[in-house]
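[Solved] Which block belongs to which protein?

Original post:
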Amino acid sequence: MKINGNAIRPGNIIEHQGRLWRAVKTQHVKPGKGGAFLQVELKDIRDGTKLNERFRSSDTVDRVRLDEKEYQFLFSSGEDYTFMDNNTFEQLTLNADLIGEPVVYLTEGMVVTVESYEDSPISVTLPETVVCLITEADAVVKGQTASSSYKPAVLENGVRVLVPPHVGAGTRIVVRTADSEYMERAKD
C-alpha cells in the first residue's frame, strides 16, 4: 500500500531501498528555508541496523502489512526455540536472535505473536508483562527511604531488576518484558 512520506508513524513497517524497516521515531521538521519534511528513524527488521531518512510529502513509500499469528511456546534446544500453531498443530523453530532480549522470559505454554512477511518469520512478540519469582534480593540500606529508592533483585531466570525496598526474595512480581522493569507485586 502506497502512503505519503509525511504519513509514516512510529511502528509502521515500510519497504525502502529494497529492505523492510520499522519506523521507530518520527519528527516533523519545518526549516526556515525550503519545504517541510518528516525525519524518520528506521530500524531494519531483519538485522537491526538503523537509518535516519528524510521524507517529503511528495515522496511515496510502500507500507507493508505483516501477517500476525499466535503460537504456543513448546521447548528450546540450545539457541533454537520451537513454537506450535494451536489451530493447525504445525511446529515452527526460530533462532534466539529473531526473538531478541525478551527470550529469557519464554516459559513453556506461553502464547506469543509471530509476525511474518511472505511466509518468512520476522519477529516474535511476547506478552507485555510476565509474572516472575524473585530468588535473591539485596537488603535495604538503612536511611535510604526516599520515595524513588529501589534495590537490585535477581529473578528465577537470572535477570536482574530493580524492585522497591518492601519486595523480598520469594515474592512473585509482574515484570514488563520489553525492558525488564518492575511493574507491581503479582496477585496471588
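(Second protein starts here: sequence line, then its C-alpha cells.)
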Amino acid sequence: MSNKTHYSPTDPEARISVKPGKARALNYLCSVAVDTAAGLISHIQADFADRRDSTHVPDLVPRLQTRLVANELTLRDFVADTGYSNGFNYAFLEQRSVTPWIPVFGAYKPAPEGFTYEAEVDAFRCPAGKLLPFRNYATSKDGNWAKNYRAAYQDCQQCPLKMSCTPAAPQQKFVRSAFAAAYRRAWHRQHSRAGQQMRRVRQRTVEPVFGSLLHHYGLRRVGTKGRAAAHKAMLLSAIAYNLKKLLKYQSKPTARVAIALYPMQQGSYSSLFSAWLTTSNSLQVNSLTECLPI
C-alpha cells in the first residue's frame, strides 16, 4: 500500500507513513519545538505524514520566531536530528541569523577521498595536484540545483593516476549540491565539541517531551478526522504539558536580612549606620527577619 494507490475515505487528509520496524498506518506528522532552557513546548503543528521532516522547516521556523518575538525572546540556535538535514534548510536558517545544529546525513563528505576543496577558487584539487574547477549549475534527477566540477581533459589524459582515479571516464568530474558551502559548515559544526554538546542537549530535552506527549498526553492515537482537528488535539496536549510544567515550577526566593534600627538608639549599631540615618529618618524593610533590642 502507498499513498499513490490507497487513501482513507473517512479521513482523506491522513497519509500512510512507513518507518523501519513499524507497520504501515494512517498517521499525521507532529512537529514539536522545545525550549531547551525551560523544557517547555514553544511550537507544535500537525503536518502530512507522507512528507519528509526536512520539508517542514521553512514553515515551522517563521511561526516559531513570531511567537518568540511576541514574548521578547530570540531564536539563535536550531537543534534537530538528521531527518531535518537539508541544504536549503541550512541556508534558510543562516539567512535568518539562526545557527543550524543539524547533523548531515551519514554518506556526506566535505570532499571525495584523496581530494581537497579550496574555497578561495571554488575548486577541488586532486591527488596529482590538478584543479577541478566549478563549471556550471544543473538540475539533478530530483529537481534540486547542483554544481558541476570537472577537470581539464588533457590533465586527466596525461595523469599517471588516471586508471586508479577515473578509469572509465575521459576525465574526473563531481556533482555537488548548490548548498555545498552550507553543508560543509554544518559538517564542521557537527564534528566540533559544541556540536557534540548540542546533540546531548537535544537528547535530554526534546526526546523526553515527545515521549511524554505520546505516552501520557494522548498523542499516540488522535481520535479526530482532518488535519485541522489533529492540529487542535496537538495544541491541547501541548497546553496541558506546559501547564503541568508551570504547576511544578517554584520560584527560588532570595534570602534577605533586614535590620530595624531606631534613631534614638545609642550604641555600636547606631554609629555603624549613622550615614544612612542622617540621609533618611526611616528605612523601608522588605522582610523583617531580625530585630535588635532597644
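Accepted answer:
You had them paired correctly. Confirming on the second one: Confidence is low (pLDDT under 50) at residues 279-294.
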